[in-house]
Design a protein that fits this description.
three-stranded parallel β-sheet; Rossmann fold; 39% helix; 10 helices; alpha/beta
């Protein structure tokens, strides 16, 4: 049986550690970290994610502010509001929940966030710091994956890591982290990759982040590989009360028969994204108070 990489447990451990640090601040009459969350529009799944972040703030003792705006809000007004948060010394970090309405440029919005408060780790400055010796606030999901690898003592140095998916949010930054921090040999695959299986079968560590349920099957994975499944898609399932279930990019039932370690979906990488957001907010607070 493979090791099931329990992201839910590790995320809980991280939040407990942060809660202890916040308690020490309060006991010393210091204010706790403060996270602000901006939501534009009424995207259903976004509210679910935001509620998870608010609950995490409550669990660790952070202060938080939820700022909700209509989908008709202009890009100019949103950027002006972000400028206000950048200047507010009582706000340690903030996020702009994606997706945004089509008339608002995601890149313009992200680059208007002060890097020192960019706790999602999306700005060019934070992204670029991955390749330096002075990493700043790291992209949350890749940061969470690296923390799982570290806390499960998965050997990476000299190992071949194959990352399927080259997005700016996960695949691209993770490949740099595996190269720079984990000292792995890295191959990045994407939608233009020919003969995907020839690459995935060579992976000692296989990370998949494309959002295609069941993309990776047992015959595409090397026996004994560590498999990190980042994909989370809704799949119709009449047996569920909701009418759907969450599915990863990996055929968990079959691949788990040959993997040495594997993340489940849900309960693997997902909880680590919020835990990383909390870690980044704590780091932003500490940097501001040095």
């Amino acid at each position: 049986m493979p090791t099931i990489i329990d992201g839910k447990k590790i995320a809980t451990d991280i939040k407990n550690e942060i809660a202890d640090r916040v308690k020490a601040l309060r006991d010393s009459d210091e204010r706790p970290p403060h996270l602000a969350i901006i939501v534009v529009g009424d995207d259903g799944p976004s509210h679910t994610y935001v509620n998870g972040k608010i609950n995490a703030c409550k669990a660790v003792g952070f202060d938080y502010s939820l700022m909700q705006f209509a989908a008709t809000m202009t890009e100019q007004k949103l950027v002006k509001h972000i400028d206000g948060l950048n200047a507010d010394e009582d706000i340690d970090g903030f996020i702009v929940q994606l997706p945004l309405p089509e008339h608002i440029s995601v890149q313009t919005v992200i680059e208007s966030i002060a890097p020192k408060k960019d706790v999602d780790g999306f700005t060019n400055q934070n992204f670029g710091s991955i390749g330096s010796k002075h990493e700043l606030l790291l992209p949350a999901t890749p940061f969470g994956i690296m923390e799982l690898i570290r806390r499960y003592s998965i050997e990476t140095e000299g190992k071949h890591c194959v990352v399927v998916g080259a997005s700016r949010l996960v695949g691209a930054p993770l490949s740099l982290m595996m190269l720079e921090d984990a000292r792995a040999t890295v191959t990045v695959c994407h939608k233009y990759t020919v003969n995907l299986a020839t690459h995935t079968k060579e992976a000692d560590i296989l990370v998949v982040a494309v959002g295609k349920p069941g993309l990776i099957t047992k015959d595409m994975v090397k026996e004994g590989a560590v498999v990190i499944d980042v994909g989370t898609s809704r799949v119709e399932d009449s047996s569920k009360k909701s009418g759907f279930r969450l599915s990863g990019d990996v055929d968990f039932e079959e691949v788990s028969k040959i993997a040495s370690a594997i993340t489940p979906v849900p309960g693997g990488v997902g909880p680590m994204t919020i835990a990383s957001l909390i870690l980044n907010t704590m780091s932003a607070y500490e940097s501001a108070h040095e």
